[in-house]
Design a protein that fits this description.
The chain is α/β, with parallel strands linked by helices and about 110 residues long. Helix content is about 35%, strand content about 20%. The protein contains four helices and three strands, in the order H-E-H-E-H-E-H. It has helices spanning about 1-5, 25-30, 50-65, 85-100; strands at about 10-15, 35-45, 70-75. Helix 3 (about 50-65) links the parallel strand 2 and strand 3 (about 70-75). Helix 3 (about 50-65) crosses helix 4 (about 85-100). The longest helix has 16 residues, at about 85-100.
């Protein structure tokens, strides 16, 4: 499947992984994707709001497979059915900022 993704004219591929605890395909270990990867770290439609630490751990694990410059952190699915920001998004943004501060260059 990664070969097909590489052949697409896309800048970023979204992987909705929040329901699988953020598990990225093992295939990325063998053949990294040159496209940006949007990692879904929360299910915006779920009443369960993951804590910031859980999302930080998912981001850290993803960084073991995906270079920081190509990793995008986002919610699974779109926000079309949401009328206002939800706590999951606030926590997701906090988690991403905290992991960025942990990086050697602070970005």
């Amino acid at each position: 499947m990664l070969d097909a993704i590489e052949g697409m004219d896309a800048d970023v591929i979204s992987l909705e992984t929040s329901r699988s605890s953020g598990v990225l395909p093992d295939a990325l270990r063998e053949k990294p994707c040159s496209r940006g990867i949007g990692l879904g770290v929360c299910d915006i439609h779920s009443p369960v709001v993951p804590d910031t630490e859980t999302m930080r751990n998912l981001i850290r694990e993803a960084l073991e497979l995906v270079p920081a410059e190509t990793l995008r952190v986002n919610p699974d699915c779109g926000l079309k059915t949401r009328g206002e920001p939800v706590e999951s998004l606030r926590r997701m943004a906090d988690a991403a900022r905290q992991v960025r501060r942990e990086a050697p260059d602070g970005k």
